[in-house]
Amino acid sequence: MKRTGPTNTVLKKLISQLQQSRTPLWVRTAEELSRSTRNRRAVNLSRIDRYADSKTIMLVPGKVLAAGRLTKKVSVAAWQFSSQAAEKIKAAGGSTMTIEELMKKSPKGENVRIIG
Known about the structure:
The protein is α/β, with parallel strands linked by helices. The protein has one domain (9-114): CATH 3.100.10.10. Helices cover 40% and strands 23% of the residues. Strands 1, 2, 3, 4 and 5 form a five-stranded parallel β-sheet that branches. α3 links the parallel β1 and β2 (57-65). α1 (9-21) runs antiparallel to α2 (24-33). The longest helix is centred in the N-terminal third of the chain and has 13 residues, at 9-21.
């Protein structure tokens, strides 16, 4: 079977934008998002809480899931959020954003950490 890559047009556009930036962080994120849905990262809030600090924006090239507690005020950017995960992040005083928004906010990828 021939690998075709993502079929979602919004995701294809995002991957193209990330690759054109030529910044190592964004190119790596594009590679991660190019994986099949089954192989894409899924990160629980407990892992984000374990590795996050208030100065760094956590980048998840996949989906953020709601398992665990979030005890820190943290900013998280991801391709997708479960509805419960987004609620828990906002309840802890943090913020959520899309990868496109993060790319505009930090074009060179400063203070951004990929987690997975």
